[in-house]
Write a structure and sequence with these properties.
This protein has about 300 residues and is an all-alpha fold. It contains 12 helices and no strands. The radius of gyration is 23 Å and the shape is globular. The termini are far apart.
Length: about 300
């Protein structure tokens, strides 16, 4: 039963990831709207149009990037805060912590447990660190040896440090019902869930740069499915509470997002937004006197 549920969660999570990336990124970020409709909206809402124009100007790109980064931090902090409140007050998802642990203990079988033990290693450092080296070797030529290395150090190595720090601060006790695999350290957040969410997303981004939307969607779906599957194994193996893995997934994806923003997303160049803004400002300063002379 636990193995069936894990597979079902992976499939569902993968479909959600594929749908969100393929349709949200295309339909929302690049909507197809008639020119006439846009003109009508601009005339109806001149202040809003002016504000959006200023916000999307190249000289305001750094502010927009900082706003995006701050939004990710806020969302991650809110998610973490809500989960911690649930844990402290035994409310929300925390109500299912004990029942999920007991369900896993009742429905575990030797065969399923063996498969889950093997699969859960996909979220451990013993697998992810060597895999990061392989990803670096396969993508460095296309995107730059130093750039890929630095991005992987931040996205892969950084999440281990952040997760361990939060574990030390929260210091939550692990479930003690039927532990079916080894573990170390406090319980919240799940290190395996955090690592799988951040690392697989980073790997998917590196392989997806310059690819078609279909390929990128499939890579995103695979990354989400693997992270969700690893999270399930931690609960079904009895070494984490349900809220531990939810917090781990939130932390991992938040850390990946911050890492990708720092490296300019698809450009994979650290500090790219700020450098683009500086170049744009310098270009406008040089063009200003020239335009004035021509006007005179």
């Amino acid at each position: 039963m636990t193995l069936v549920i894990t597979v079902a969660v992976m499939v569902a999570a993968g479909l959600v990831g594929w749908t969100v990336f393929r349709f949200w990124s295309v339909a929302v970020l690049s909507p197809r709207i008639r020119t006439g409709t846009i003109r009508e909206e601009v005339h109806r809402h001149p202040r809003l149009a002016a504000a959006m124009t200023r916000r999307l100007d190249t000289t305001s790109l750094a502010g927009l990037a900082l706003t995006s980064a701050a939004s990710v931090v806020v969302l991650g902090a809110v998610a973490f805060g809500l989960i911690l409140v649930m844990i402290r007050n035994h409310a929300g998802f925390a109500d299912f912590d004990l029942s999920a642990a007991r369900f896993a203990a009742r429905h575990s079988t030797p065969g399923a447990t063996g498969v889950l033990r093997d699969f859960t290693q996909a979220g451990g450092a013993v697998v992810l660190v060597p895999l990061a080296v392989v990803v670096w070797a396969l993508t460095a030529r296309r995107h730059g040896v130093v750039r890929v290395f630095a991005f992987l150090v931040l996205s892969v190595g950084g999440q281990f440090a952040v997760a361990d720090l939060i574990k030390w601060i929260v210091d939550r006790t692990r479930p003690d019902i039927d532990r079916l695999t080894g573990f170390s350290g406090p319980s919240f957040p799940s290190g395996h869930a955090t690592a799988s969410a951040a690392c697989f997303a980073a790997f998917a981004m590196l392989f997806g740069i310059g690819r078609s939307t279909r390929v990128q969607s499939l890579l995103a779906a695979t990354a989400v499915a693997l992270a969700a599957g690893v999270a399930c194994t931690r609960v079904f193996l009895g070494v984490h509470w349900l809220t531990d893995v939810l917090g781990g997934l939130a932390l991992g994806w938040t850390w990946f997002t911050l890492s990708s923003i720092a490296f300019g997303g698809r450009f994979l160049h650290f500090g790219a937004p700020a450098e683009d803004v500086e170049a744009a400002v310098e270009g406008e300063e040089r063009a200003g006197p020239e335009i004035t002379r021509r006007s005179a």
